Amino acid sequence: MDEDVFDTGIITNPDGSGVVVAYADWPAGSRDHLTALFRECVVELWGCLDSLVTESVAMFSIRQRVLDPDAPRYFPIADSPEGFGALLKQGCLDGALDRQVALIQACQPYRSSPSDPVLDKLRAGLRHLVEWENRLDDGSLIGAWTTPSDPQIFIEPPADAVDVHPEPPGELVDERVVARYRAEAIAAEVSVSGQAGTFIDLALPDGFEPGSPDDTFGARLGLAIRVVGMFAAAFAKFVDETPGTKRLTGGTADAAASWTDARRSPRRWTDTELAAVASSELGLATVRNAGDLTLIVTTPSGTFERVIPDASPLPERVRRGTAAESAIHDAAATWGLPDFVLHPQQERKGRGVREVGDGLIVADERGVVVQAKSREGQPTNPERESSWLTKNITAAFKQANGTVRQLTIKPSTMINGRGRAVTIDGNEIAWVTAIVIDHPDPPEDYQVPILESKIPAIVLLRRDWEFLFNQLRSSRAVVDYLHRVGSPTETLGTEPHRYYELAAADRDVVDAPLDPVWATWSGRRASVPLLPAAPAGSDDDEAHAMVRIMCEDIATSPLNGQTEKNLLRVLAAIDRLPVGYRTDLGRLLLNALQALRVKKPDQTGWQFRTFRPTAPGEVQLGFGVCSELSEITRAAFRSWFLLRHHERSAVEPLDGRMSIGVLLTPDRTGLREWDTTMMAITGDPGLSPEELAVSRRLWNREC
To answer: What is the pLDDT of residues 414-454, one digit of tens each?
Structure first.
């Protein structure tokens, strides 16, 4: 629009009466265009509110499972308690935090109590959004709204204007009287002038009833935008104050995380290039380009390519070093378990304060000291960047040694990613150091310095750190990998290459013969590489995530008198289940849950899978599914679990030996898919001959 859309005029009648008129000359199609822009704004504001719910549910999806994960999640608004309850029954907020749900309920537009300035503002903003959506759906168009404030009339003497009366506010379509007046002793040749003294605002006029001159359409729109921001701030605060896993990216079907046929690569590899890869010692090649690392591997099934993406982007408004440390910890807590991620703590030393490490990852008897070094500012020439790397890698290594030394002198209490206190005694843990480099443009072919120490050290880019956790999706698996390699790669940035060298070696290893005493056990023997070539879960993400979900259930359940140390030992033992077994186990459990959910009331169905230890001292894991959870089935599961643990005594003494059992049962409340029950035992269960006989008749009979 231009500046000539609105104008005013004054009309004086012969009898001295007159009016002040406002005029609108709308350009063709302008009201439709303005209405379309405003509709888009309203839709975006609703989209912001809905995304707060969907993102929150996604952040905690691994913790708060729901019966119908495909039901749409959105920000519900209702005009009555009954309407709000009906929306909740559709599952629109299932999986959101309780505090988020309570806030949404308290701010429903139909509510007026409790009276609170902040709640009242939130309710008012939501009322505006609801009203606008309804008016737009009814076909209302953006128009103009007049609010007379101080209209004035000026007449040449001796005439005089009296009784200037503003008209009520209202919609201006083509023209509208904004004030009326009467002039005394006026003659035909007397000049009359004045000013409208009227505010003209854009508005959605249908049903617009301002409460005061300041209650304009613009003010209401500003309030609605602020309210959406207030909800965003509140949701973020609730998330920040909730310990534990904040997100778990679903699926690994992304092209950047899976293998594709190299012959169909966008890079258009030539037959000569692919043949050179096939004829190399390992049948493996790497190509670097613009931050990405491309792996090409030759297998009996063909030659495949996988792109290892650059490190995840960092927040722009946070100091790079701080943001990088958070990203490093987040990767470990996201793809591993937050229970094993320990944040750096401040400890008083003399009159000063020292920080214990950049962070630790501790899974039972193995730990990693994590040192993050971030390059802030703009990189310069390769020589200076190489010097920066050498200086900071050396400093990080010394700091890590100091951390381990401090932890062995005196145990330290640290806070894990679940927000719980954990005591770390460095003497009980085998350590390695992971020096994670965050650098926007590291020099190519940088040779990592050799660091001599009793504590092995691995130096890798943040990209490669994220690759390991995304590839394995297990804290214990990554910790074991770092302990296995025990030293940095010769060239910085080639950790994925080394990973696939070891994965190829694992794949080619012939199964070693089992100790005859263990081979007497019945069951199927299976062997999988400790380091899978395909990303964990790429074959069946839903099934693969089952072990993680069970760990989340156990980690967030009441301890019932047990210690945090015992809980962490159980979680570490379950997380130690090799990655290659998880998909098959998860699919077994999911199928069993589906099948047993429809069992008849007078029947009880069971399905079990036991992972027997293949070496003395390892933890035995048992997983079961039952059609119903009751005191009877709980006791039955306990008898099965203790029997399987007792059977270990035939091949090894039970002193100090641990077994863990996990039972899944279909949930009947509609709040989630299943319930999780966990039992653990160390040592001899002390079963009597009578108890053993009953358990064997129940569980060891031929079906």
So the answer is: 989 888 889 999 999 999 999 999 999 899 889 999 888 88
The residue ranking higher by pLDDT, 384 or 70, is: 384
Are 677 and 658 in contact by the 8 Å Cβ rule? The answer is: no
CB within 8 Å of 497: residues ≥ 6 apart: 284, 286, 295, 489
Q: Which secondary structure element, helix H or strand E, spans residue 676, and what is its range?
A: strand 674-682
Whole-number Å distance between alpha carbons of 599 and 601: 6
Length of the chain as a residue count: 703
Q: What is the largest CA-CA distance in the chain?
A: 125
290: left (phi over 0), alpha (psi -120 to 50) or beta: left
Residue 703 CA to residue 701 CA, distance in Å, equals 6
Question: What would the 3-class secondary structure string for 427-486 be?
Answer: HHCEEEEEEEEECCCCCCCCECCCCCCCCCEEEEEHHHHHHHHHHHCCHHHHHHHHHHHC
Q: What gap in Å lies between CA 571 and CA 667, rounded to an integer?
A: 23
Asked if the bond preceding 114 is cis, omega within 30° of 0, the reply is: yes
Q: How far apart are CA 578 and CA 603, in angstroms?
A: 34
Tokens representing residue 98 in the block: 């309780």
What span, in angstroms and rounded, lies between the C-alpha atoms of 358 and 702? 55
DSSP H or E segment with residue 662:
strand 658-666
Cα–Cα dist 532/525, whole Å: 18
Do 340 and 568 form a contact (C-beta atoms < 8 A)? yes
**CA dihedral angle for residue 596, residue 598, residue 599, residue 605, rounded to 10 degrees:** 0
Q: 192: helix, coil or strand?
A: strand
Q: What are phi and psi of 475, to 5 degrees?
A: -60, -50
**Token digits of residue 203:** 């508005």
Which of the two residues, 300 and 495, has the higher pLDDT score? 495
Phi, psi of 430 (to 5 degrees): -90, 130
Is the bond preceding 158 in cis, omega lying within 30 degrees of 0?
Answer: yes
Would you say residue 246 has pLDDT above 60?
no
Through-space distance between the first and last CA atoms of the chain, rounded to whole angstroms: 83
CA angle 355–359–360, rounded 5-degree value: 125
Contact by Cβ (8 Å): 585, 610: no
Average pLDDT value for residue range 337-346: 82
Phi and psi angles of residue 408, each rounded to the nearest 5 degrees, phi first:
-85, -25
DSSP 312: P
- Per-residue tokens: 123: 């309710």
- Note the pTM of the prediction, 2 decimals: 0.73
Instruction: Compute the distance between CA of residue 494 and CA of residue 492 in angstroms, rounded to an integer.
Output: 6
State both tokens at 662: 């996990």
pLDDT of residue 254: 44
Instruction: Check residue 91 and give its pLDDT.
Output: 85
| Rounded distance between C-alpha atoms, residue 363 and residue 536, angstroms | 19
DSSP string, 62-80: TTS--S-TTS-------SS
- Measured at the alpha carbon of residue 262, what is the angle toward residues 258 and 268, in degrees to the nearest 5? 125
393: which 2 tokens?
């890698």
Burial class (CB in 10 A: 0-12, 13-18, 19+), 493: buried
Q: What is the CA angle 519-523-524, rounded to 5?
A: 90
Q: How far apart are CA 584 and CA 419, in angstroms?
A: 32
Cα–Cα distance between 274 and 379 in angstroms, integer?
35
Q: Write the DSSP symbol of residue 616.
A: T
For the chain, the 3-state helix, strand and coil shares in percent, each to the nearest 5, are: 40, 25, 40
Would you state the pLDDT for residue 256? 41
* Residues 6 or more apart in contact with residue 238 via CB below 8 angstroms: 56, 97, 99, 100, 103
- Evaluated on CA atoms 45, 46, 49, 53, the torsion sign reads negative
Predicted local confidence at residue 264, as pLDDT: 84
d(CA 632, CA 275): 63
